[in-house]
Amino acid sequence: MHQFVAEKLPSYTAMELPLSKRNGDVSMAATVFLPDLVAVVLHYLDMLAESNRLTWHNHGLIPDSEVWVKLGGDHGGGNFKFSFQIPDTSNPNATNNTIPVCIFQEKDTPANLETALGQYMTQTQQLQETS
Q: What is the pLDDT along the chain (131 residues), one digit of tens a residue?
């Protein structure tokens, strides 16, 4: 994670969650996550604004009155990584604009995603309602 971000974001929480293996067995798997996605996204947006790193691309895709948050996940290297990005920056897909939200050491099965990411359902709704 880029030093600019790592120094200023809240701490992650680590715990073990009951996640399913490929064969269907359930075992405890190491999981690291941000408990308060809303606070972290808003804090990150403040940091971007203060450093003049927010931009609008003037292509009509993102209205000037909105800031979008992109949520996504990827499995690879034995881990599933769920992260957010702010597209309203000059390099939206840059690694220093990709903030990990949750990482766990298991496959991204529907059951595992629900177990590990279920806490973010309400939080993403809160983000959508934030002005």
A: 334 444 455 578 888 899 988 788 899 998 999 999 999 999 999 999 899 888 876 666 667 778 889 999 999 998 999 999 998 888 888 888 899 999 998 989 999 999 999 999 999 999 989 86
Token pair recorded at residue 87 = 């597209």
C-alpha to C-alpha distance for 21 and 50, rounded to whole angstroms: 44
What sign results for the dihedral spanned by CA atoms 91, 7, 50, 34? Answer: positive
Predicted structure pTM score? 0.82
7: DSSP letter: T
User: What secondary structure does DSSP assign to 35-90, as a single string?
Assistant: S-HHHHHHHHHHHHHHTT-B---SSSSS-TT----EEEEEEETTEEEEEEE-SSBS
- Chain centroid offset of residue 70 CA: 8
* Cα 125 to Cα 10, 26, 49, 115, 129, distances in angstroms: 21, 30, 23, 18, 6
Q: What single DSSP character describes residue 19?
A: E
